[in-house]
Amino acid sequence: MRTLVHNWTTTRPAPVLPSSGTLRPLGLDEVTLTEGFWADRQRINGEASIPHCDYWETRVGWIDNFRHALDGSVVQHRRGREFSDSDVYKMVEAMAWEVGRTGDPALNARIAELTAVIGAVQEPDGYLNTKFGRPGQGERYSDLAWGHELYCYGHLIQAAVARLRTGHDDELVAIARRAADHVCAEFGPDGRDGVCGHPEIEVALVELARATGERSYLDQAALFVERRGRGTLPDIEFGREYYQDDVPVRDATILRGHAVRALYLSAAAIDVAVETGDDALLEAVRDQYEATLARRTYLTGGMGSHHQDEAFGDDHELPPDRAYCETCAGVASVMVAWRLLLATGDTHWGDVVERTLFNVVATSPAADGRAFFYTNPLHKRVPGETAHPDEVSARALSRLRAPWFEVSCCPTNVARTFASLGAYVATVSDDALQLHQYAPARITTTLGDGRAIGLEVRTGYPYAGDVTVRVTTAPEGEAGLSLRVPAWAVGSATLDGEPVDGEVATIRRAFAEGDEVRLSLPVVPRITTADNRIDAVRGCVAVERGPLVLCAESTDLPGDLHVDAIRLDLASPPTADGSGAIGRGRAVEHASATWPYAAGPRERDADTFELRLVPYHEWANRGPSTMRVWIPTA
Ligand code: FUB
Ligand code: ZN
């Protein structure tokens, strides 16, 4: 199933570097996003979001927790949730990728400063946490279900991997290695028979093993994956499925419980499977994720429909107004799909990455990068309040994007993803390069067989469907270039004017410098319907355009019309308009305000109007509004 294309000694600035796989990822030094949708977001992330996170982590005291842990006052002064250390680490990871991308010396100095603050708290045996282990605090590992100690190490380790892979074998790496050694000693085969209530350490340990060549980290990750599902964590009101401790990973058939936990665990299990050659595990996780996409995923790629436990619902339980779709679950789903793509070479995983990036991850940050959605519902019945720029919000309030949350996992997750986005654009195999995501970019790399190749990508994607790839360095002899054809374009895409057969457009020939190929994708509005079993949207359609899910926002409706008083008239199909679409809308009058049920129809069509639909990721950027993705049809 898999071919070895590189080995332990190969390193590059990328978050995921499997030692084997069908496709090899590229590093941030090999792919530069030059302009357009993703380059803009990456720039705003570096200029605004990362400093914004630093400001808030400082302001809410989560960085100071480390200082208080040193001066003995942490019991009185510690602020934030039990996992707040992880948010500092996740921010440092974002900073590390950003430094890798830009070389920014000031940001590099800030990482060194934070590293000193963090490192001072580490105990001689490698233990590191501001919430446990001191007089007046809970004992180390006394609350594996909720304490998040291992989860925190996971994010520390991922930050260190980012440092190592961007050329900084520094003190943060030493701290993370001491922590990882401590975890192996404490939770190894002869140690505590436990797992963390929040998977994350597993995916981090595999990556640290890949980055350092230290086998024990991989073995520990594999042990954690095998241990889960055997009931070592307590049964809680949400059931052990909340933390995936109900069924062993390889026996599960679908993702369940807390969405971020389930997805981080899946990513880790894929990594373990790839590194240990465990095809049965890889196939089990792939099947679970496929089942989850088929039955428990929103049109946006968002996952999780239960608020109380931030969890997956039952099959087809996907109410748009109650969609939780935590931003972190979107990030985690991208992590899973990307790993499957690398392991299997199946390019359709690029579709999942694309859908989720454009419609969940890109929805979270405000246009200025200084406020974020934590949850991403597909229907908003009441205009949320604008969160005060100076206030910390609860995570799932009826608010619009907020600058910071009491549980603020999402902003730093977006930040680390955007800073490392270049790594998700393309891969290579022995004698070919595969383009998975379309954005203006410069790519300079070597194929698996060592031949140099350079490309320049020009496109107005996602708003325009032409993607031109120019060869800037031609590999000697024949080579392959393949371009993903998104599922919505299969059957209508063309390559240099010729119809493309299937999900990938492939060219194999001897290229010359200056050669150009042009993929054309039909980025026109299209009507999407849902499986009838998703009862909550029966009788509704959505409009998509290219990779973008569109929505109706009250801001664009005539008069005081509410988004719940409109229908879409399919007799006149929506046409492209700016970055969205225009369709024919019909206002609906509700017959009774006192009782919403009756034998006959309870509403009638009234006026028609031009219904403007905008990209979902842009919603609420113009102030409070009501919004819906799924629109009843006339
Ligand atoms: O528990 C740590 C993080 O907080 C989870 O990943 C999020 O879902 C939020 O609950
Ligand atoms: Zn989150």
Automatic annotation (TrEMBL):
- What Pfam families does the database record attribute to this sequence? Beta-AFase-like_GH127_cat, Glyco_hydro127C, Glyco_hydro127M
Residue limits of the Non-reducing end beta-L-arabinofuranosidase-like GH127 C-terminal domain? 525-632
Top-rank lineage group of the source organism: Bacteria
The GO annotation for biological process reads: carbohydrate metabolic process
Residues of the Non-reducing end beta-L-arabinofuranosidase-like GH127 middle domain: 433-522
The residue ranges of the Non-reducing end beta-L-arabinofuranosidase-like GH127 catalytic domain are 30-422
The record, for InterPro entries, names: 6-hairpin_glycosidase_sf, Beta-AFase-like, Beta-AFase-like_GH127_C, Beta-AFase-like_GH127_cat, Beta-AFase-like_GH127_middle
Q: What is this protein called?
A: Glycoside hydrolase family 127 protein
The source organism is Cellulomonas cellasea
